[in-house]
Task: inverse folding
């Protein structure tokens, strides 16, 4: 929005210029919270904001003439910046002229000379009075005190300035009145009217009765700025009808006391030829036109003079590059900022005029931003698409300003915009399924496996913590078997594991970031328990109390190969640790029996003698583990007449227990479940790819 106010130049500090809160449509109590601040474009502070009342106040007394000189308009440009949200408002304050200056002549007394032979109608130019006020408060007219011989004529110059001249109405007679005393009064158009006077003394002379005449008396020249020093501006055309010294003209600049030599620093005048040339660089931006007054004076006695008025108007060329002003930049900006969010307020200005001062701003098309024109020479840089900090954590934004001159002039300014992270990415495990192995009977606190997850966010949004979920798949909570380091994801055992009790565990692990709201993901670690030889073989047949022996009768005439009995043993371990072998312990006497290494069958190895007594055999069962474990049983074999063994009754081999059947069933279910989950995951990954 742009606000427009006006204030007379003579108001005291504290004068209320306008009600900002009302005109902006905001509540007064919100101004302080939104950090309303005032920025003067010229760098000078003339105003202040009363945040309590929401009004714009004068900070110092204004002097229009000091601020704007002779400019027909006088405006001061301010900028109001408010935050939350960031807004920029332009305020233009017109300084109204007050009739606080009276007209003043360059000299309080003016001495003129006129020959007595001057014809009625002869004109005597007078100094122009000056009034710093503008408009109706500037000089309105001139008045001359009553005279029988002279009257006042007022001409209007090309720039609107009124030029007084004394006109001879009646022939003069020097012998009667050699000197005439008049009073010239300059009146302005203010209310009340102010005036200034100058005393005019006219001496009547003899002889040289033709003054130099400038043709035309008022002229205009167009000149490009920055022309080389010494460029000819014009040559004055002045004629004098007299001859000899009375017709020899010399030229000089005519200056005033209030602006002594302003144009004389920029232009030179040849006193003999009347050529006006530049003697310093001309700058359109400093002044677009110059009014030059030249006095043409002959060498007669008395000397007569004429006056030439030249207006030099400069043609602007594109000699100034645009200037970029970053009023405010909001950095960092959240990566989830909505399209249209204001990032920066940018002002641009060019001291040239016309097309040379028309500026357009540009930024790179590939950036997710665009420029929106707020009002004249002010732009807003807003988001034009989604931002993603994980793809670009910041942008170097180059703003380029190009004018419409020929040739074009451009300038650019680069600033860095940081993108702030929001928690928009969940942590990801390196693999959704992992496999780990651990030896049974490992000490509590043994490291099992380390899961690894990553989060592309930063700061607290990327700070990860790990935990184990209880999925209820085991009879006992999984947390009683394993724990996890919440910082590095290392899984440790809580107690020693028993392969014979649990052969595999599914450990669901959750990783969660510290963002708000927190995001998480899960993975499953299958922990396989590796068997170790921690169970000795157990003899299930023959079953005898510890320290006792098993008695077995056989026919006394049993032939070699006769099956005496069979030793049956089991081992709770698995694999090589459960491979059993049977053998007889060495004894002092040679025994007529042998045991099959793998089956445990005891057979007659050689024919028995009729009178042979009982034989004591120690059968040792040993597993294949490292170190190897063993068990033994004592069997006493007694040869008897007519003894027949019924192995269908005596050899009562153990059957599979319900616990072994359930364990097998659990293993089958686990393998099928793992296979199904793996197939589903592979299908999802393939579909996503």
Result:
């Amino acid at each position: 929005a742009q606000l427009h106010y006006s204030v007379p130049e003579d108001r005291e500090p504290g004068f209320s210029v306008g009600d900002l809160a009302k005109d902006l449509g905001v509540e007064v109590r919100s101004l302080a919270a939104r950090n309303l601040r005032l920025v003067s474009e010229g760098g000078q502070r003339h105003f202040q904001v009363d945040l309590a009342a929401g009004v714009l106040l004068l900070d110092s007394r204004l002097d229009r003439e000091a601020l704007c000189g002779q400019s027909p308009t006088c405006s001061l440009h301010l900028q109001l910046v408010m935050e939350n949200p960031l807004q920029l408002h332009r305020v233009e304050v017109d300084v109204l002229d007050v009739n606080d200056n009276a007209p003043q002549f360059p000299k309080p007394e003016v001495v003129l000379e006129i020959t007595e032979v001057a014809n009625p109608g002869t004109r005597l130019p007078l100094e122009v009075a000056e009034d710093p006020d503008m408009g109706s408060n500037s000089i309105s007219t001139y008045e001359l005190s009553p005279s029988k011989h002279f009257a006042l004529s007022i001409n209007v110059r090309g720039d609107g300035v009124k030029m007084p001249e004394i006109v001879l109405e009646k022939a003069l007679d020097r012998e009667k009145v050699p000197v005439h005393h008049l009073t010239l009064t300059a009146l302005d158009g203010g209310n009340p009217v102010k005036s200034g006077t100058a005393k005019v003394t006219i001496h009547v002379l003899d002889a040289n009765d033709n003054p130099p005449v400038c043709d035309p008396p008022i002229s205009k020249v167009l000149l490009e700025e920055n022309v080389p020093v010494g460029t000819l501006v014009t040559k004055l055309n002045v004629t004098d009808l007299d001859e000899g010294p009375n017709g020899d003209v010399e030229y000089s600049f005519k200056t005033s006391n209030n602006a002594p030599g302003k144009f004389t620093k920029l232009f030179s005048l040849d006193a003999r030829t009347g050529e006006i040339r530049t003697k310093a660089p001309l700058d359109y931006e400093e002044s677009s036109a110059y009014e030059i007054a030249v006095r043409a004076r002959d060498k007669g006695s008395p000397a007569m003079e004429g006056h030439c008025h030249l207006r030099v108007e400069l043609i602007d060329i594109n000699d100034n590059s645009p200037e970029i002003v970053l009023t405010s930049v909001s950095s960092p900006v959240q990566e989830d900022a909505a399209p249209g969010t204001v990032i920066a307020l940018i002002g641009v200005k060019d001291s040239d005029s016309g097309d040379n001062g028309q500026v357009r701003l540009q930024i790179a098309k590939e950036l997710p931003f665009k420029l929106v024109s707020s009002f004249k020479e002010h732009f807003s840089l807003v988001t034009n698409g989604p931002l993603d900090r994980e793809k670009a954590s910041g942008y170097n934004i180059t703003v380029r300003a190009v004018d419409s001159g020929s040739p074009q002039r451009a300038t650019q300014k680069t600033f860095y915009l940081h993108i702030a992270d929001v928690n928009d990415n969940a942590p990801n495990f390196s693999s959704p399924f992992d496999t780990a192995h651990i030896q049974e009977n490992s000490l509590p606190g043994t490291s099992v496996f380390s899961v690894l997850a990553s989060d592309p966010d930063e700061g607290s949004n990327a700070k990860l913590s790990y935990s184990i979920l209880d999925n209820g798949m085991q009879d006992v909570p999984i947390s009683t078997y394993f724990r996890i380091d919440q910082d590095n994801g290392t899984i440790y055992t809580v107690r020693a594991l028993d392969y014979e009790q649990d052969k595999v565990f599914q450990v669901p692990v959750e990783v969660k970031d510290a963002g708000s709201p927190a995001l998480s993901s899960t993975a499953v670690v299958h922990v396989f328990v590796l068997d170790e030889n921690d169970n000795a073989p157990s003899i299930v047949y023959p079953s005898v109390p510890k320290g006792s022996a098993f008695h077995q009768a056989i026919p006394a005439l049993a032939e070699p190969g006769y099956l005496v009995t069979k030793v049956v043993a089991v081992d709770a371990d698995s694999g090589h640790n459960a491979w059993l072998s049977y053998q007889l312990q060495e004894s002092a006497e040679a025994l007529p029996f042998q045991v099959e290494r793998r089956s445990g069958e005891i057979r007659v190895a050689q024919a028995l003698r009729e009178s042979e007594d009982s034989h004591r055999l120690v059968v040792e069962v040993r597993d294949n583990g490292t170190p190897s474990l063993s068990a033994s049983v004592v069997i006493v074999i007694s040869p008897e007449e007519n003894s027949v063994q019924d192995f269908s009754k005596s050899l009562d081999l153990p059957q599979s227990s319900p616990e072994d059947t359930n364990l097998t069933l659990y293993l089958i279910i686990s393998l099928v479940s793992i296979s199904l989950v793996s197939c589903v995951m592979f299908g999802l990954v393939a579909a996503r790819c």
